[in-house]
Amino acid sequence: MNEQDKIQQLQSAVENLLEEAKRQGADSAEAGVSAQTGLSVTVRLGETETIEHTSDNGLGITVFFGNRKGSANTTDLRPDAIRESVAAACRIARSASEDPAAGLADPALMARDIPDLDLYHPWEIDADGAAELARACEEAARSADARITNSEGATLYTQRSSFVYGNSHGFVAGYPTTRHSLSCAVIAQQGDDMQRDYWYDSGRVAGDIDAPEHIGSRAAERALARLGGRKVATLACPVLFRADIAPSLLRSLFGAIRGHAVYRRSTFLLDAVGSQIFPQWVTIDEDPLRPRGQASAPFDNEGVATAHRDLVADGVLQGYLLDSYAARKLGLQSTASAGGVRNASITSTGQDFEQLLREMDRGVVVTELMGQGSNLVTGDYSRGAAGFWVEHGEIQYPIEEFTVAGNLRDMYAGLVAVGTDNAIPGSVRTGSWLIDKMTVGGD
Amino acid sequence: MRPLVRMNVQVIVEQDGRREQGSSGGGARQSLEFFQQDDRAAGYAREAVRQALVNLDAVAAPAGMMPVVLGPGWPGVLLHEAVGHGLEGDFNRKGTSAFSGRIGEQVASPLCTVVDDGTLPGRRGSLNIDDEGTPSGNNVLIEKGILKGYMQDRMNARLMGVEPTGNGRRESYAHLPMPRMTNTYMLPGEHDPGEIIASVEKGLYAVNFGGGQVDITSGKFVFSANEAYLIENGKVTRPVKGATLIGNGPEVMTRISMVGDDLKLDSGVGTCGKEGQSVPVGVGQPTLKIDQLTVGGTAA
Asked: Which of B217, B251, B252, B295 is the best substitution to test chain A (most A C-beta atoms within 10 A)?
């Protein structure tokens, strides 16, 4: 079946669902249906380790009886199963309590034109072809250096999905997407010291993915660079979050400005809209309509039209991330954020990584973060880390088994520079972050 | 049938513009009535509020190496991260774990006996049979500090030439089975918990934790405290803000110098993630003392 036919089929499934919900007494309803196929092949030490073919369907229905809401999910798209799912959602709604904020998004906000965001580029590759690329990738890593002694393998993954959303405002729309990735993880060893690291690339188009040999040798390089890690003394110093982990600092921001955290008063950025939370040179934008973008979508999970927006402009927080529920709770309007932030980026101050090291002069580069020590209620931040010790503006040696701690509010306000070294594919684009001062916990 | 219920309570408290959170919960392989028995649901709420109020008074946590006393029960997440994952058969078959090839070696202090027991009645991590049909077992991982065995599914057991141990688990039919923990805990020792705290001149007493994470290959692991206190001159004093603790699994286990007689299992909240698959697990331990561990606070 071609993709257009698939979308047609899912659209009629959604229409039937909405019809069925009405028949069973719901005042309004919304439904999302997705169908996905994928292939994942892992090669380890030159041998094919696993081949996985996946084929998944998913259907979710939400019904409203006045302000009472019920939801149900199924993976079975046959008519009987659909009827039963609708009935289950209706049973839940009838016994749910009234919630004045519950309901569909504002009909005036529904997406009218559905732009083609160039998200569908299937990769015609079979298991043998996938294994060949994964093997080339792993081989490049293993042959990079004699100290690469072991491997977790290389994995090629390709997936195509079709998604349709509809609700009883008469909105029904959908689109197909693809996603492909190639990753590799290897182990470097020197004496008793064993260090693992990985690298990957991913994209909507197979041709956009970096050469297997590059991904492999980058994985090896990263693992080798960790060998001989030392401990660091406990001190307060500048910290440079390397570009591949810097997105996590933006994700903490997004978590803290989620409407659901705001109406529950469970965020350190409560009432921060309109206030200066970053230095003045910082702008953070969201670009949901970016062609081929990894998180691009023409409408959010409630059918609301997405659009470019600044989340932070001149260092000032511009607004929250609101779905219709949080918006009603707060007396505001949806920002098309049901389903999260779609493609974010932050301004750079223009330095490359080496220039940032020189600017830092003496401090710590963080290349790995571990654990969940980021408290979005208070902003308190304390995470396990690995990285490098920097003196005289140059990397001296790898360091490990230390913590970096501070408060996100101070970290955002103390952002000194953002590099030009955008490192990883994905929905958050940023270079390395130089933060003026944090506490490093070590020996 | 393999029932599973879980309840979680999270509260926010506010005083003079300062907000803090507390959370609590529990679960078991039971029906929903479990929460109505023994006043459990209300108990979770009270516990969450108590924890949040403690945090309202918390001062900045210290940073650096110091003695750490871990309370009983859920802090057993230490064992899950510091040794548990590193003893899963797949990593050891591949030789990628810091514990690879070390069976029979001393990997922890002689006070430590750690088991993975899927046979405990009604516990969150318990299984009658694993997801490949192998009966679950009470497997000794570390006995008096000596590494005894790994946790296996069928494939890795066959490839390593050993018996499966009932640890082959999968999130659902749509996932491949792999070696996973069930309920991982340390057997009790001989010390009175009060005596353990009294032995510390200056250190940290951590009683509640969020999650943890481990790098299997280097052995580095972290776990984040969300209720902790300073120990000063053998006494528990001020509450401190949550801090991440970081160490090297095999190293930290050899630094366990006191083990309490108060073994407790967690309340049934644990979920373990590995290669994108989540499965319910349990942890437990008595009060124990680690002579030196890096604490990641902000008070240098």
From this structure: B217
Residues of chain B contacting residue A235, judged by C-beta atoms under 8 Å apart: 300
Which pTM value belongs to this model? 0.96
What's the ipTM? 0.94
Residue A275's CB is within 10 A of a number of other CB atoms, namely 10
Confidence at A79, pLDDT banded by 50, 70, 90: confident
**H/E/C letters for each residue in chain B?**
CCCCEEEEEEEEEEECCEEEEEEEEEEECCCHHHHCHHHHHHHHHHHHHHHHHHHHCCECCEEEEEEEEECCCHHHHHHHHHHHHHHEHHHHHHCCCCCCCCCCCECCCCCCCEEEECCCCCCCCCCCECCCCCECCEEEEEECCEECCCECCHHHHHHHCCCCCCCEECCCCCCCCEECCCEEEECCCCECHHHHHHCCCEEEEEEEEEEEEECCCCCEEEEEEEEEEEEECCEEEEEECCCEEEEEHHHHHHCEEEEECCCEECCCCCEEEECCEEEECEEEECCEEEEEEEEECCEC
Q: Per the structure block, which two tokens stand in for A214? A: 């590059």
> Sign (positive/negative) of CA torsion A362, A365, A369, A375?
positive
| CB–CB contact B217 A380 (8 Å) | no
Contact (CB, 8 A) for A66 and A205: no
Query: Cα A223–A229–A235 angle (5° rounding)?
Result: 130
Average pLDDT of chain A is 96
Q: What pLDDT sits at residue A426?
A: 82
What does the pLDDT read at residue A4?
Answer: 86
Phi, psi values for residue A149, rounded to 5° = -100, -15
Residue ranges and CATH numbers for the domains of chain A are 3-225 (3.30.2290.10), 229-443 (no CATH)
The per-residue pLDDT for range A281-335, each reduced to its tens digit, is 999 999 999 999 999 999 999 999 999 999 999 999 999 999 999 999 999 999 9
Contact call for A373 and B210, based on CB within 8 A: yes
CA dist., res. A132 & res. A126, Å (int)? 10
